[in-house]
Specification:
This protein has 2 helices and 8 strands. The chain is of the alpha+beta class and 173 residues long.
């Protein structure tokens, strides 16, 4: 057993890296918000925690997706706005337009299948209390774990696809 001193990262490179990668998402969403929309075949799957701080989704969607939701930004989105670290977009669910608002910090996954680009983030999930005072368990079946506003034939099967950039590889264990 060696007694090497533990290195302390006073710069907090993990947070700096995470913030830089979220800026990539911000810039991509800004491009998508332009009147001409997304260029070429680009489209995004954005997964975010529905109960994270700063998230605003309609109550019926919150009941349907109590943990997280995956939205598709491809053809049928409106009023996409990027203001600082906050995103808002209008999407149709069952033909009914709904406004979703969320901060970049609530995003757990960003995927552009047209170029096989994916970012994943470890985001602490807020604990919600149920009527008994205990935490709410995510009891949604796996097929209900996320929602998309339209199907995508380009989506990879769960066990294949692009190389994932995970911040864990940069963290010292």
């Amino acid at each position: 057993m060696t007694d090497t001193p533990s290195v302390i990262d006073h710069m907090d490179y993990a947070t700096l890296t995470q913030n830089a990668l979220r800026d990539v998402i911000r810039e991509a969403l800004i491009k998508a918000s332009h009147p001409q929309g997304l260029p070429g075949d680009h489209h995004f799957y954005v997964t975010f925690l529905t109960r994270a701080e700063g998230v605003s989704v309609p109550e019926d969607l919150l009941r349907r997706y109590p943990r997280d939701i995956t939205i598709v930004l491809q053809h049928q989105y409106r009023e996409l706005k990027v203001e600082g670290d906050r995103i808002s977009v209008t999407l149709s669910f069952g033909g009914v337009p709904k406004v979703l608002r969320f901060p970049l910090s609530a995003i757990t996954r960003f995927y552009d299948p047209s170029v096989q680009f994916i970012l994943e983030f470890d985001v602490e999930e807020p604990l919600e209390a149920n009527d008994d005072g205990g935490p709410i368990a995510d009891t949604a079946p796996p097929s209900e774990a996320g929602a998309t506003t339209e199907p995508d034939p380009d989506a990879p099967p769960p066990d294949s696809g692009p190389k994932v950039v995970s911040l864990d590889q940069f963290r010292k264990k």
